[in-house]
Amino acid sequence: MHCARFVLALGRRDLRRAEKSWPSDVWKRAVRALSTSSATSLQEAVRSKIEPMRAQVHEVRERFGEEVLDACTVNQAYGGMRSLKAMVYETSLLDPQEGIRFRGFSIPECQRLLPRAKPSGEQPLPEGLLWLLLTGEIPTESQVESVCQDLKRRAAVPPEVLRLLDELPHERMHPMTQFSVAVSLLQHESKMAEAYAQGAPKSTFWEYCLEDALTLIARLPAVAARIYRNTFHGGKHVPAEKIEKVDDMGMRLARSLGFELNEFDELMRLYLVLHADHEGGNVSAHAVRLVGSALSDPYLSFAAGLNGLAGPLHGLANQEVLRWLLQMKEKLGNRPMTTENLRELCWETLREGHVIPGFGHAVLRRTDPRYTAQREFALKHLPHDEMFQLVSKLYEVVPRVLEEQGKVKNPWPNVDQHSGILLRYYGLVESNFYTVLFGVSRALGTLSSLVWDRALGLPIERPKSVTTQWIREHFEKRSVSA
Ligand code: HAX
Fold first, then answer.
1. Is the CB of 357 under 6 A from ligand 1?
2. Using CA positions, which residue lies closest to atom 15 of ligand 1?
3. Region 150-312+430-456: CATH code
4. Largest separation between any pair of C-alpha atoms in the chain
5. Within 13 Å and on the Cβ side, how many CA atoms surround 20?
6. Which residue spans within 235-327 are E strands per DSSP?
7. Is the CB of residue 411 below 6 angstroms from any atom belonging to ligand 1?
8. Nearest CA among 443, 421, 452, 190 for reference residue 306
9. pTM (predicted TM-score)
10. What residues form the catalytic site here (predicted)?
11. For residue 408, how far is its CA from the centre of ligand 1 (angstroms)?
């Protein structure tokens, strides 16, 4: 067996013992990242990391501060700054070929190394990922348990916010709009805004930011469920006593939405882990960073991120994918799902001037490993589902069609291509709601990163913009003087 895979298969307890026999890179990284701190709370663990990290950043800036990290072409300035290296974001890094790594760990590695729900969970607990994102360490089971308990303690949403959410025009207002409103409504409890108003020193902002981040993350499952039940189930909510005893965030989300199957709890844990973070330049993460850089508190910053996530080229794509798949099935009618029939329908989408949702990516140049993780879940739990068969067949057809079209830089499927059919299989059929789930997950990564923005004292963002006339004059002048 491949050495790295073997090492990961060992799990954290045996990892140390395997030290001498398996000196692979993955093994070394995993052992290095196993939590060695005696911290019993996440807050303590983050605190212990801040001074060393500030020192590291100081040293890097001293040594390399004046080096050129990247150069920006005119095309990049017009083209959404694509691939321009102009920001630092610690919690995750996206490789175009390999996909996302959370603090250095790929998705399969996280699935092996992070603690799971007892007694028989197979997917990592999102609380373990939160610890990893915030501290860079693989937590022990008891550390994850402490996060679970902390979030559980904070999970209740203030009744006045629930009342306001109940008053929204659910039939006319998209669930993402309701979600963004809800996060803004929660803002009045921000500890960071309060500390700032009382003159707290800048060096302490991270503490209040972390406090807000944990409270907000803890409350999002209940907020999402309120929106779901109000919009699609006539305001009939799951009784609080059914949720109170639930220990982990994934299961709390599943149960609050009204689902009672263990397999769906597992899907929610996987979903929350997969969608959590995708480095810093994507629209939602960058919006959170940008708004936070004005020292807007985590609630205001995250609401901005959600508004970006609600765009169809970003998080709304998962809703669009399911709609597109269902339309495709309808158009197929009694015709079989052959390559030729599917090709024809894909071309129809392109000829109408639409993108094929769930394919392509601004950074990735291979199949998204988040797609692969969901495919593996489907192969295990719903191999015969008709919609899964359709998604599998499209995996063979769409990349070729997009290559023939000749425009896309990446013809392979992304995360959004797969999530909808899994949710639908378990009965969550209301695709308008899907991006809300994405948003609950995205809080884990973007808010962890925001805590570090404040811990490292990053300044307000203010890149320089220029006009088309400025560009013309600048380069014309340069060619005259050359
Ligand atoms: N179908 C048809 N055309 C596509 C395409 C797709 N799936 N993906 C890209 N293209 C087109 C672009 O629209 C662009 O055309 P124009 O030159 O006419 O504008 C051209 O191919 C080059 O685009 P690109 O450089 O390959 O891709 P971008 O970095 O500009 O955009 C997107 C990346 C993800 C926005 C794009 O691939 C897309 O629109 N995909 C479909 C929507 C989608 O799945 N979005 C979710 C992405 C993942 C995510 O953020 N999830 O939240």
1. yes
2. 407
3. 1.10.580.10
4. 76
5. 1
6. none
7. no
8. 443
9. 0.93
10. 314, 361, 416
11. 7
Token pair in block for residue 196: 């700032």
Closest CA to 85 of 278, 280, 293: 280
Please report the DSSP string for 124-185 in residue order: BPHHHHHHHHHHSSBPPHHHHHHHHHHHHHH-PPPHHHHHHHHHS-TTTS-HHHHHHHHHHH
Helix or strand (DSSP H, E) at 303: helix 298-309
Instruction: Write the residue with the smallest CA distance to atom 1 of ligand 1.
Output: 355
Does residue 133 line the site of ligand 1, with CB under 6 A?
Answer: no
Number of neighbours of residue 262 by Cβ within 10 angstroms: 13
Q: Is 81 in the pocket of ligand 1 (CB under 6 A)?
A: no
Angle at 168 between CA 165 and CA 172, to 5 degrees: 135
CATH numeric code, 316-426: 1.10.230.10
Distance 349 CA to ligand 1 centre (A): 14
Is 140's C-beta closer than 6 angstroms to any atom of ligand 1?
no
Whose structure tokens read 């809703």? 319
CA of 314 to the centre of ligand 1 (A): 10
Q: Is 408 in the pocket of ligand 1 (CB under 6 A)?
A: yes
248 vs 39, which has greater pLDDT? 248
Instruction: Spell out the domain ranges in the chain.
Output: 150-312+430-456, 316-426
C-alpha pair distances (Å), 438 with each of 175, 272, 290, 387: 12, 8, 20, 20
Which of 431, 362, 391, 452 is closest to 134 using CA atoms? 452
pLDDT, tens only, 217-253: 999 999 999 999 999 999 999 999 999 999 999 999 9
Q: What is the C-alpha separation between 55 and 414, in angstroms, rounded?
A: 37
Three-state DSSP at 359 gives strand
Give the 3-state secondary structure of residue 422: helix
Q: Do domains 150-312+430-456 and 316-426 have the same CATH topology?
A: no
Count of C-beta atoms within a 10 Å radius of residue 272: 30
- Residues with a catalytic annotation lie at 314, 361, 416
In degrees, rounded to 5, the angle at the alpha carbon of residue 181 between the alpha carbons of residues 180 and 187 is 95
Q: Which residue's alpha carbon is nearest to atom 22 within ligand 1?
A: 408
What is the pLDDT at residue 32? 75
C-alpha 360 to ligand 1 mean position (Å): 5
Q: What would the mean pLDDT of 449-463 be, rounded to a whole number? A: 98
For residues 378 and 422, the answer to whether their CB atoms sit within 8 Å is: yes
| Both structure tokens of 164 | 């306001």
